[in-house]
Amino acid sequence: MQAFAFHNPSSVADAVRAAGTEDAKLIAGGQTLLQSMKLGLIAPSALVDIGAIAELKGICIDAGQVVIGAGTTHATVAASAEVQKHIPALADLAANIGDRQVRNRGTIGGSLANNDPAACYPAAVLALGASIKTDRRTLSAEEFFTGLYTTALEDGEVITSVSFPVPEKAGWQKFKQPASRFSLVGVFVAKFGDGPAGVRVAVTGAGASGVFRASSLEAKLAGDYSAAALKGATVPADALNSDLHGSAAYRAALIPVLAARALD
Question: Could you give the CA distance from residue 46 to residue 24 in angstroms, rounded to a whole number?
Fold first, then answer.
């Protein structure tokens, strides 16, 4: 691993200043960044450690939404009484990310900023219509995710929190790759009301360009939010990912199956 400077700011403002002075990368849990550096895929001149910044951590209810600090670990989200009460599907998702070590180091903000196409959190953020707050602005889920490993974040911009509206109902299912425990396909479903605008279905692990909404499944569930409504449902495979773990057709077949299981 190459030499680099190391900054340990005590506030978001200090972190933003440090990130803007060099070819720096922000690091919290480091579950992706450090591995990429070891493999020589990335070589920042400086790391800005935001893992100890208190204002980035914690979970609360604000204006009827579940607000999670960007530096909050997956294990903390999974164990949160507030998350379990208001959005149990989100707690379940967090409890099944990676392994115990990953859950105790990785953070929700780091996962979203990296936007791995098989990560779990993007599906929850998109399906629940969450808002991502940074040191500069607030972005909707649709605005935030822009493509494969890319987001709307600008250089030096820091995610500070994520706000999740509380749904009437929600469910999560993933078919994981057993070694990495990333999603071959993961589906998060949420109901906020009746009609087409009240149902959201987001898919991770399958899209060639990352997380996406399954509009055809949303349409079927708009009038009947049940697993029965998805009987015989199909998803086009032409925009899905194929790799050694599964073909696009295989992933397309899994999506409605997992959506039905999430509803059950």
Answer: 4
